[in-house]
Design a protein that fits this description.
Blueprint (H helix, E strand, L loop, with lengths): L3 H9 L29 H9 L1 H14 L5 E3 H5 L2 H4 L5 H7 L4 E6 L8 E6 L1 H16 L1 H14 L4 E3 H6 L1 H4 L5 H5 L7 E4 L8 E4 L10 H13 L19 H12 L17 H17 L4 E3 H5 L13 H5 L4 E4 L6 E4 L3 E2 L2 E2 L6 H49 L1
Antiparallel strand pairs: 1-3, 2-3, 4-6, 5-6, 7-9, 8-9, 10-11
Helix pairs in contact: 1-13, 7-17
Length: 404
């Protein structure tokens, strides 16, 4: 039995033609009958763990920013801890993450006793201005992402409320439907009122430049650099120690020989259970993950778009069936689909330009953590000095007592 890493490369690099009889041809079997056992990838799980603290801080910040005037009584925020999935008290959170908010006293109602309020700090205000500049700088990229999502859908239309739910996954600004979409009537038409469940974003015109997937662009670039025509296909990298049954190795080998089906092609004539449709589904999922800022997205989030992107009810099996392309993490009790080629160990290598925003936010957090660490160090030094002075004083008193 070959290891998972070598099994794929062996079959892809040897031009072995599959048998055509139904007895030996793996395609004669139903795709759903081909199983690959899920295996934990600790390094990719760690990539999710690395962002845990950042995401928690971002949730708390969003909660305050959504308040009128961007201020909130501390006790009101304390009541929302469960919704924010915050396991410590707000006071503890503020102590551990200084620099995000300022605490001040004000009255909730006239003639009531002043209580503690939170407002965003000067550092956070500067970050928000920086965020606006990055969104403006990369607006063409955001527009292309939005067009691509619509162009891959079967009717070239998506529910606006669903798009709002995934805005952070794809790096869209909070107000993209209100302030961004209307600026591009040549691409978009918004029907209905977002938030009422009957609002849709429609594609107005098709841009052929946007209709190139990440895989097709990569093949074009390789062809340009080498002078040799490169056929678009998936990068397959199976983790070491992973084993595939012979039947599955043969299936993957033959499946890779199929022509690549662009996620932007019309596939209305394809049978949902066909191997070509499987190729197309993998292509769509690959492209969707490529468009996300972290090259990963919760599987339930993708499931909300099953109808729009023609996914089968069992589409999540694709992530384990094609374990050399995807990884499905179970970290935190949430199924998260990840694009293997975008990562090296636990580090994201394929970086979306919108991640500059995350980088700046982390700088703000780290500055606060650094100041807190310095303050704690000074406190420890003060305690140490006090203890030394106390010990010296006690020693002197003991000597006086002995002399007497």
């Amino acid at each position: 039995m070959l290891s998972k890493t070598h099994a794929i490369s062996f079959y892809f690099n040897h031009n072995v033609k599959p048998a055509t009889t139904s007895h030996t041809n793996p395609f004669a079997k139903s795709i759903s009958s081909l199983k690959v056992v899920w295996r934990k990838d600790r390094k990719l799980d760690q990539a999710i763990e690395n962002d845990k603290r950042y995401k928690l801080c971002a949730r708390v910040v969003r909660e305050v920013l959504n308040e009128p005037g961007q201020v909130i009584p501390l006790r009101y925020l304390e009541k929302r801890r469960q919704r924010m999935r915050l396991t410590v008290k707000i006071k503890t959170f503020l102590t551990r993450n200084p620099g995000l908010f300022d605490v001040y006293y004000d009255r909730i109602k006239p003639k009531t006793e002043p209580v503690r309020f939170l407002r965003i700090s000067e550092g956070l205000k500067e970050f928000l201005e920086y965020e606006k500049r990055i969104y403006l700088e990369h607006e063409p990229w955001i527009i292309s992402k939005l067009c691509k999502l619509l162009m891959m859908s079967k009717d070239k239309v998506l529910c606006a409320d669903k798009l709002v739910e995934v805005k952070r996954d794809f790096g869209f600004p909070n107000d993209f439907l209100v302030n961004l979409v209307p600026k591009y009537p040549q691409y978009f038409r918004l029907v209905g009122c977002p938030g009422e469940g009957q609002s849709f974003l429609e594609l107005v015109s098709w841009n052929s430049e946007f209709a190139k997937s990440a895989i097709e662009r990569r093949a074009e670039e390789e062809s340009r650099l080498t002078g040799i025509r490169v056929r678009p296909n998936f990068n397959v990298k199976l983790p070491s120690g992973f084993f595939l049954r012979k039947e599955m190795r043969e299936w993957v080998r033959d499946w890779m020989e199929l022509d690549y089906v662009s996620p932007y092609e019309d596939v209305s004539s394809l049978d949902q259970a066909s191997r070509e449709m499987e190729k197309r589904t993998v292509g769509v999922l690959h492209e969707l993950l490529s468009l996300t800022t972290h090259k990963r997205v919760p599987v339930p989030t993708l499931g909300k778009f099953s109808d729009e992107y023609r996914f089968s009810n069992a589409f999540s099996n694709v992530f384990t069936r094609h374990s050399g392309i995807f990884y499905m993490s179970l970290k935190g009790g949430i199924e998260t689909a990840m694009l293997r080629e975008a990562y090296k160990d636990d580090k994201l290598m394929d970086r979306d330009p919108l991640l500059e925003i995350k980088g700046k936010f982390i700088e703000l957090l780290e500055e606060g953590w650094r100041r807190r660490a310095e303050w704690l160090s000074l406190q420890r030094e003060e305690v140490k000095k006090d203890m030394e002075m106390m010990a010296t004083k006690n020693g002197i008193e003991d000597r006086y007592a002995c002399d007497e």
